[in-house]
């Protein structure tokens, strides 16, 4: 068990390392010198070369990579090509904002998907089940940004219940933070919840046909108690896979919802950096997102073995 | 064990039991009685309605199937009109069940001992008593090293071992009636005999009546006092094991006998089989 965990951890570290090399290489083969971008099209070749030298861009690639990754390991992501400010502190600020956004959205999604998915499975083929299936199908078809704009139009603009956009740091003003986050959380959570509901439903349906639930009923449980005490744990395994994928997709796709609600997250930072051709910033953000995705994969794998003892043996 | 007096009349009384899938009858007008401690075999080809009959008696019919008629259990009364909650009180305490497929009958994510203990916990036994009793029950079904086995997960057990665990769960509360739905069909031959012997022993020890479903006449003949033969959803013949096996009246019973190795007129049956 411990050995399997260590092996999985090694895979995580190697993957992160390989990813960092790939990201670095892709950024360095992109045409156009960052110094040229920083100085504008009117700059003389001499000035560009001087700035390149100052930025260290004239040195061999391996040296540049080692310097970059060495800094990253200490939380130093270098200086932005455009603002000349250190990237690290801003990146972590933005990251925490996006994490709040995405995790809150996932909580809303789970709160919706688990009960509705289970009910849809239990009422499969009956009116309640059909209604939930139809609603979740509609939810799947609605993009999160559209849900966000509808929420803003109704809740914020027409009824004036909540602020339409903006962000407040939770430590300084917890209530303001919640008031600003409710709509983005709902926008993400409703859509992701609709997707997740379908997975919960089919996963629970799979389990409902299993013999062990009949055994549990034969022991003296009602059908619903059998599902609660025995079925849900088994049903959670495929749902967990989807949950991991959703979390990563949300994190990387957060830019859309951050734009709609004017939230200063990592997604809008990435899109700004891309449009400014601030490659070093892009490089740092992409690395952090990739490492996040790898971490989620790692946690999901560990949770599998916690939930399902059969996987523990295979992992040995 | 619940103070049943065998002279009090039948333990289980099934009257005109009918099971419908929509409008299609799967089981029609099945009536029989089971005295306390009695063992009755239910035989028939697959699709004859044996399993459905038993599931109806245990309130475990699949969605979309509806039961009509009457099933009375002494001391509990009519079962068919009970709610799922009402059924749950009866199942596991007064009626135990062993199923055909041991490989999938246990929850793969829960330790075996806990699954056995749960059968008692559901009917009012406290946790520590149930946990201790679970190990004893595993020992009683001849599982080796029951202390260690109680902490194992189902996938670490063989099919025969899992079926013993299921039997241990079914007998945990010493039920008045044990329903066995083809309990040895999925096991290999050497294990079959042992599991049958255990069902025999455990049912005798608890004084449980047994309703034993099988398509295998040899198995039923060795365990049961009486036989019911089902064909196309109806009981076509019933009587003591000796009566049914030596003087079968219904053509379907004769067919079942001819298909098995227990044929009354051995020579003739074998000649028949050779012709086919």
From TrEMBL, chain A:
Q: Where in the cell is it found?
A: Cell membrane
Q: Which PROSITE patterns match?
A: ABC_TM1
Matching entries from InterPro entries are given as: BPD_transp_1_N, MetI-like, MetI-like_sf
Q: What is this protein called?
A: ABC transporter permease
Record's superkingdom?
Bacteria
Q: Which residues form the ABC transmembrane type-1 domain?
A: 95-304
Task: Please give the chief subcellular localization of this protein.
Answer: membrane
Family assignment?
Belongs to the binding-protein-dependent transport system permease family.
Q: Which GO terms describe its molecular function?
A: dipeptide transmembrane transporter activity
* One matching Pfam family: BPD_transp_1_N
Q: What are the record's GO terms for cellular component?
A: plasma membrane
How this chain sits in the membrane, per its record, is:
Multi-pass membrane protein
Annotated PANTHER family: DIPEPTIDE TRANSPORT SYSTEM PERMEASE PROTEIN DPPB-RELATED
- For this UniProt entry, which segments traverse the membrane? 9-30, 99-122, 134-157, 177-200, 237-262, 282-307
Q: Could you list this entry's UniProt keywords, alphabetically sorted.
A: Cell membrane, Membrane, Transmembrane, Transmembrane helix, Transport
From TrEMBL, chain B:
- Alphabetized Pfam families for the sequence: ABC_tran
What's the chief localization of this chain? membrane
Give the membrane topology, semicolon-separated if more than one. Answer: Peripheral membrane protein
> In terms of domain of life, where is this protein from?
Bacteria
Alphabetical UniProt keywords: ATP-binding, Cell membrane, Membrane, Nucleotide-binding, Transport
**Cross-referenced SUPFAM superfamilies, in alphabetical order?**
P-loop containing nucleoside triphosphate hydrolases (SSF52540)
Q: Which Gene Ontology cellular-component terms appear in the entry?
A: plasma membrane
- Give the protein name, as stated in the record: ABC transporter ATP-binding protein
Q: Which organism is it from?
A: Nakamurella aerolata
Q: Taxonomically, what lineage is the organism?
A: Bacteria, Bacillati, Actinomycetota, Actinomycetes, Nakamurellales
